[in-house]
Amino acid sequence: MSIELTAYERGAPFPGDLAAALAALQERIAHAQRAQIVRRKRAIIVFEGLEGGGKAAAIKLLSGSLDPRFVTTQAVVPDRRQSDDGHWLARFWRDLPADRRTMLYFHSWYRRVLEDRLLDLVDRDGAERAFDEINEFEAQQRDHGTLILKLFFHVTEMVRGERLAIRDADPTGRLLMGPAELRGAEIRDEYDAAVGQMFAMTNTRWSPWTVVDANDVGAALVAVLSAVADAMEKAFPDIGEDEETSVIPLRRSTKLRPA
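RE: above sequence
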């Protein structure tokens, strides 16, 4: 199912008390994670979009809501050396979260396909085959009881350019910018076309995309945490009193019994 990105370009600021709203959402997420841990479930949260969209800030805020013992952040960079040894998705199979754990992907399996498309390493048919394989991959995770939430940060090129200019003016920030960030404006039309194909093929019933209007930082953070809280609460409902005896405890007693 296709998605029209121009519907996510209002950039309206959050109308209420931003700090209070974020604090309340963080508490909801922390509570939902406790239910996830007790239920021994897995979660995958994908952060995709061009640099300058605010993914890092959102991950930082979300990580602060979660028990660090049960969360990992994976920054995905193109590495075809790993993929040359087998199927290109093999590296992601190795990194899937175990039970009770949440994996935050700063970019994901989608980055490989999008960049191959922009570099003309695959044609449209090749990209379609890759997206079909992703759909199967995500369906298998869903069938295994894993929550998958896919967030796409959309920002207009004007706003993105302003943010990258600020980053470029900072000597430390400039060191963190790579060729993809610097070439973003040049390839924006091609990138948006590739993203359109991605949405059309991978916005599935079992793993839909959530698009975030990232043109206002505060409103984007509220939208991200709201999407995470809603998804986790739906996937990991509270443990009722009638369920307590059937749920596997986090740890068993190690006290020595008297001889």
